[in-house]
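Standup notes
- HV: blocked on the assembly model, inputs below
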Amino acid sequence: MTQIIIQGLLLSGLYALIAMGFMLIFSIGRVLNLAYGAYLMVGGYVYFWVSQQLGLPQIIGIAAATMMGVIMGLLKHRLIVKPLKGDHVAVEISTLILAVVMQAGVVLVFGDASKILLPIVPGVTQIEGAAVTYNILVAAIISWIIIIGLYVFVRNTYTGRAMQAVSMDEKGAAISGIDPDRVNLITWGISGGLGAVGGVFFASYTQLSPTMWVGPLIISVAIVIVGGIGSIMGTLIVAHIIGFLEVIVVAKLAPELRGVFTMLLIIFVLVLRPQGLFGREEAH
Amino acid sequence: MPDIEIKKLCAFYGKAQALSDLDLSASEGEIIAIIGANGAGKSTLLDGIMGLVTCTGSVRVGGDEMLGKSSSATVAKGIGYAPERFNLFPYMSVKANLMVGAHTAREDVQTNLETVYRLFPRLAERKNQETATQSGGERQMVSLGRALMTSPSILLVDEPTIGLAPKVCLEISEILRRLSTEMGLTVVVTEQNANFALSLAERIYVLEGGKITSSGTADELTKDDALAQSYFGTKH
Ligand SMILES: Nc1ncnc2c1ncn2[C@@H]1O[C@H](COP(=O)(O)OP(=O)(O)OP(=O)(O)O)[C@@H](O)[C@H]1O
Ligand SMILES: [Mg+2]
């Protein structure tokens, strides 16, 4: 029981971090960035390359991964999202294509076989009698720090408030002197960085493989659909629902069913409450 | 030199033309009103000034051409806008809505916030309320307040009295007058409520089907029988 609670809490923290970047884009650009999982994958591989193949310090590996994520996000906005302005279906299809292309790129550079990332912090500890790896513990703590930082940023800075403003009313933002295009660009950058750093932890928790982008993408879609648009709190709460659901299913039913209930939850919420459990009715 | 001078303004929604060859100007500290029926083009005119609608012609502010500039550039140039549907941020507090308005005028944020709370004490009382739960009158105040947070020298207000009780209309009209007299703001108001416009504005333009059909002071317009009948509900 303690094992489930502790594992659930730690995994949920990581899931919340992963979903944040996806939620930001969905809230502000109103598009599902189906290449989001690929940010995580590339983040994981960049970290692997820098700290395991080049042997540089881990912190540099994490920084390089984050930087790469930011760059990918910025480029994607400039090269794909902005030119396709307003055409959400076209953006979503091209992001999905992009994810597949990036998968092929990873296979080309790193090969088909999955790779094991060494734990970022090795070792195991006991919390309340439950065995916990330092790796997931550290991942969860850093996730929480980043999420709190993001929350403070969004609520207390001009840029953060501009992001909220654009997500709630683009015209209202524009007449307040905000350039929605610039806010979008910044958001894509932040989203890319969040995805990539989440990917480092996710890969160290699971493994590195060219298809690893699918799992976290589904988790993100689920958390955002169930949690609703535009809410860091909603995302956080639903990340815990889904994290615990997975841990309980794996421990009590069968590991193979890990993602099934998450999917069922998505359908259930789509049918019963399309704006999500914590979502807001769209204005107008 | 007029503070804002519009010449031969045409506005388009795709191929449909909503304004044609519209001329209009206001000098510093002046209050002007544009009256017109539903669909006359009032909101289009104000949106056009803000760079939100495709336009041709000329919109000069303090001598500089603003047409073709982005909305954020227009705001930075000193034009504040309280639009018809407010376009507030519903799940942000009153205070946060006002702070978004401060995006381009950060150095003035404290004084502007004090001014807004002084003009609208109700907003100070309710600064933590989300605007989604506010009444129409309160939202109008937040909308005006947010526009004032941009440190404007020209304030555009689209139909401020729509759906408001007569008492609140009076309050709003009093505040617009104070903005012009105490703070020297140029105020451009659109209205369907012609009597409100008459009581507030020094000069009035009549907009019909996207064209200015007449203009003048309140006295001049009320002397015109046909106009008085259709807009002011009186006959001389
Ligand atoms: N987004 C739009 N797309 C196409 N046509 C539009 C659009 N907005 C307004 N119009 C048209 O432009 C004309 C002027 O509309 P506008 O909203 O400016 O009128 P208004 O004077 O503000 O009316 P109201 O008093 O109802 O607010 C109308 O014929 C309207 O149908
Ligand atoms: Mg209108």
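- HV (later): unblocked. Residues 89 and 185 of chain A are 19 Å apart (CA to CA). Chain A touches chain B at residues 155, 158, 161-162, 164-165, 168-169, 171-179, 230, 280, 283-284 (CB under 8 Å).
- Next: hand off to the docking folks.
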